[in-house]
Write a sequence for this structure.
């Protein structure tokens, strides 16, 4: 191949990239912001970087406006992402309380555990009794951030305003040696854990009525109606329908991880998808009859999605799936074309804007990797594998495998086959649980919950049988970041080779560049 | 077949229109992108100000200055404890190393808009037990001296008797002797000597007020220790 032709092809490629940046500037900026957060989390941050970062951001912005080329804003977005992560980490690390030191906090509750024993005791050195909750608060120095209060004698509600006097309690190690140590608090943007002193909790203001309070009331009613079921059925329904894995025993969790179906216990796109399906079906039935405009269907379905997210709680996978579902419903309501890949980028940006320290949280990474695999990878695999369900499952597994190996040191070999079966069956459990939420207002939730419990237990028994088979999973050495990057590069090369062999067609070749902006693609 | 002039002109007009559309498109993209970047910058600035406001005094990176509980707090050998109060951001008691000057201490204290540091002697060498008060611009002149030290005592002789300090003759004292006066550092002592040379000595103690850097406060603090 001649050098001149290589140069010519490179020039054409660069021209295409420049055009793409111009056309898809918003997504380029959001992706650069996310990349800045990744770089900051790897390289670390110091206050000395603030001034040079702001100066360079200003310089690039001025260059952009002078040269009138928007691509110059991409490095600005990356710089801002770098600073965003860095300042968040500094803010969290600047909590001045030392272990066994007294602190005085005032703030409002943002998250509660529901069990009388310490929900976070799984990660604590000792099994302390009492409730746990997370506060967004301010200390006596004016520091603002999140603190977890453990072993509380009272269980507040989300939104309650409290004053807490307590002793700083330091987590040192997890009791589960398979997990990376001591990252739980930081990954959840919690600066410290505090034990309240006797009479150290004062309620200043109680949370009033709100959609969140109503959602939590629904959740409490369903859990109360579930209390008569056997423990294993309760644990499985709580996990499959509400994402609450607190009642699962260690053995149950291990079986679910080894068979690669633990993901069904993280409320995510599967559950939100069923909500959208049901909401859309109901509205498409009633909307014409009530002569409602076209946009009311997606609007009401979006409301159901948000309410369901409030019921199950704001974990990374729930937030990701909710944002993507809302984006899709918005596009449908406005009558514009929806691209799932762009919705994924927007969801990642919004979540990292709120919680930049989630960048290395396993739940966040697994949720987005699986979604990226399904959105992008399944398109190619569906051209090779006749079964759509298998193709989607394989696409998700290929993207999440290195992450599972890194955080949990296990790789499931049966997950590809078992996941599709379990996902379909879990769908019925989710639908029955949704019915239970509706009937809880009439005191009839127990009826669908009995069916959900039996089905959930059957799913678990099948999983146990598969887990008992030889070589269904393997423990691995934790891979390094270099190995993980190499894996994803090889995956991309594999897709390119399949394209070269004309076995698959790339999605880019089917994109429409002429979006009505008056912009003409250069040849 | 070569293009006619009309066709050529038509093609140029179309090209010009396409270029104009592209320029408008790019300008619109620039403005939209700049707005997003501006919003993110404001957010980052707000986060950073929350971080700065929440920092405890020890976190401000001035070497040699550490917050302590009170004047009697135990400190490392060679360090002293001073206090900061008045119209400053960081009030309290601080352990400082011998290298820390008044200027470093006031930079650390963080003067605010209303602070008035004109009465402070920047040449003063901090002593153990010093309490520095930074007045506000709106305060009356005699609200409080900028320096107080309840811990200082006169040095004792070998028999343990408290020595009385002989008044310093400002017409004959050397630099070192002048520096022994409270509130007089090397700069002010040299200024006294310069004034003495220029004006052929002091006739009255009050002439010290004409020396650059010596104001009412310093004059009142040394008046009992000088003579002409």
């Amino acid at each position: 191949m001649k050098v001149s032709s290589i140069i010519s092809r490179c020039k054409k490629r660069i021209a295409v990239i420049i055009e793409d940046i111009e056309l898809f500037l918003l997504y380029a900026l959001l992706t650069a912001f996310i990349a800045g957060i990744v770089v900051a989390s790897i390289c670390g941050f110091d206050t000395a970087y603030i001034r040079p970062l702001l100066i360079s951001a200003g310089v690039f912005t001025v260059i952009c406006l002078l040269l009138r080329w928007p691509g110059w804003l991409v490095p600005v977005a990356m710089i801002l992402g770098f600073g965003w992560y860095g300042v968040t980490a500094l803010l969290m690390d600047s909590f001045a309380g030392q272990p066994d030191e007294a602190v005085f906090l005032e703030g409002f509750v943002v998250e509660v555990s529901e069990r009388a024993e310490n929900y976070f005791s799984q990660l604590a050195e000792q099994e302390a009794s009492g409730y746990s909750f997370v506060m967004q608060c301010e200390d006596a120095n004016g520091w603002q951030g999140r603190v977890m209060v453990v072993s509380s004698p009272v269980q507040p509600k989300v939104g309650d305003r409290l004053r807490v006097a307590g002793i700083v309690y330091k987590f040192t190690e997890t009791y589960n040696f398979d997990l990376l140590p001591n990252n739980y608090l930081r990954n959840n943007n919690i600066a410290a854990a505090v034990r309240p002193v006797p009479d150290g909790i004062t309620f200043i203001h109680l949370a009033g009525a709100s959609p969140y309070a109503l959602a939590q009331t629904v959740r409490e009613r369903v859990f109360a109606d579930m209390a008569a079921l056997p423990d294993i059925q309760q644990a499985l329904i709580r996990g499959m329908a509400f994402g609450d894995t607190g009642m699962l025993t260690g053995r149950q969790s291990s079986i679910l991880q080894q068979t690669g179906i633990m993901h069904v216990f993280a409320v995510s796109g599967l559950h939100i998808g069923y909500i959208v399906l049901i909401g859309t079906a109901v509205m498409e039935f009633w909307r014409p009859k009530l002569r409602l405009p076209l946009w009311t269907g997606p609007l009401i379905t979006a409301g159901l999605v948000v309410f369901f997210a409030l019921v199950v709680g704001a974990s990374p996978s729930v937030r990701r799936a909710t944002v993507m579902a809302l984006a899709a419903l918005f596009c449908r309501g406005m009558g514009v074309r929806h691209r799932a890949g762009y919705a994924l980028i927007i969801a990642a940006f919004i979540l990292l804007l709120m919680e930049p320290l989630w960048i290395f949280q396993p739940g966040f990474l697994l949720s987005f990797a699986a979604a990226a695999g399904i959105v992008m990878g399944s398109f190619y695999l569906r051209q090779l594998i006749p079964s759509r369900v298998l193709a989607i499952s394989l696409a998700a597994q290929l993207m999440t495998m290195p992450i599972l190996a890194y955080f949990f040191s296990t790789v499931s070999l049966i997950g590809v086959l078992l996941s599709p079966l379990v996902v379909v069956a879990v769908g019925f459990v989710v639908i029955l649980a949704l019915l239970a939420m509706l009937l809880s207002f009439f005191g009839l939730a127990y009826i669908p919950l009995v069916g959900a419990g039996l089905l959930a237990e059957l799913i678990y028994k099948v999983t146990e049988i598969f887990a008992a088979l030889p070589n269904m999973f393997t423990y691995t050495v934790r891979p390094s970041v270099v190995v993980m990057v190499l894996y994803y590069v090889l995956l991309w090369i594999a897709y390119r080779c399949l394209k070269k062999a004309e076995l698959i067609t790339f999605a880019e070749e089917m994109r429409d560049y002429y979006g009505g902006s008056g912009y003409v693609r250069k040849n | 077949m070569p293009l006619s002039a009309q066709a050529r002109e038509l093609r140029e007009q179309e090209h010009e229109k396409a270029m104009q559309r592209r320029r408008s498109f790019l300008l619109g993209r620039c403005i939209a992108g700049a707005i997003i970047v501006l919003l993110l910058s404001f957010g980052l600035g707000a986060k950073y100000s929350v971080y700065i406001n929440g920092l405890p005094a020890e976190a401000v990176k001035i070497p040699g200055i550490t917050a302590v509980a009170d004047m009697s707090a135990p400190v490392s050998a060679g360090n002293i404890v001073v206090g900061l109060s008045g119209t400053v951001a960081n009030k309290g008691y601080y352990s400082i190393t011998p290298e820390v000057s008044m200027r470093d201490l006031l930079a650390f204290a963080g003067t605010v808009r209303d602070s008035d540091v004109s009465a402070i002697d920047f040449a003063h060498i901090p002593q153990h037990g010093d309490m520095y008060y930074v007045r506000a611009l709106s305060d009356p002149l005699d609200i409080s001296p900028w320096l107080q030290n309840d811990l200082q005592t006169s040095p004792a002789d070998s028999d343990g008797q408290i020595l009385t300090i002989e008044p310093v003759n400002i017409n004959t004292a050397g630099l070192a002797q002048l520096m022994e006066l409270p509130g007089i550092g090397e700069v002010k002592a040299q200024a006294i000597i310069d004034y003495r040379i220029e004006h052929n000595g002091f006739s009255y103690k009050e002439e010290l007020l004409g020396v650059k850097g010596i104001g009412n406060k310093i004059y009142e603090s040394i008046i009992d220790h000088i003579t002409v």
